[in-house]
Design brief:
This protein has seven helices and five strands; from the N terminus they run αββααααααβββ.
Length: about 170
């Protein structure tokens, strides 16, 4: 492991999500509760190896639009399955079209698109990663309390409902 790879590993192990912004700059998503000294070390590493980290992130096999979002897990490709990526791509336009309504009901963009540190569904994954977006004939609604509810009819005729709420 060379120095830039070590720096990126250190940044990620601190819980920071480095992403590439549309203007080509490096964005560091500062997690809540990170110690000031740890944050300072992360920022220094990012400054020292900025060009190399940008190059490393650009080599990841992600669709171009995902590298432009600060709320995507470009640093965790081993946690994202092809099905999850399809779900994210399906959910993204739906969520973005309703983002003002979702935000008014308590969601944040970060919580909607958040990727967990553990394999899905363990940990705090946002609803954008749910396989429910891919179900044939799924109906999606936003309830008054902000809950996103998916409803579909299974092959057996049984109606199934799942929901993602802000409190999760």
């Amino acid at each position: 492991m060379n120095a830039p790879e070590f720096a990126l590993e250190r940044i990620q192990s601190a819980g920071v999500r480095p992403t590439v912004l549309p203007n080509g700059n490096l964005y560091l998503d500062r997690p809540e509760g990170i110690a000031p000294e740890t944050w300072g070390q992360v920022v220094e590493l990012a400054k020292q190896f900025k060009a190399e980290i940008l190059e490393l992130l650009s080599r990841l096999d992600w669709p171009e639009d995902m590298t432009h979002e600060a709320d995507t897990p470009a640093n965790r490709p081993n946690h994202i399955t092809p099905t999850m990526l399809r779900a994210w791509k399906t959910a993204r336009p739906w969520i973005l079209a309703r983002l003002p309504e979702l935000e008014a009901k308590g969601w944040t963009r970060r919580r909607l698109f958040r990727a967990g540190r553990l394999r899905y569904p363990h940990g705090p994954w946002g609803p954008a990663w749910s396989r429910n977006w891919l179900r044939p004939g799924v109906q999606i609604e936003i309830e008054d309390n902000g809950t996103i509810r998916w409803t579909w009819t299974e092959a057996t005729g049984r109606i199934t409902t799942q929901a993602a709420s802000i409190e999760e």
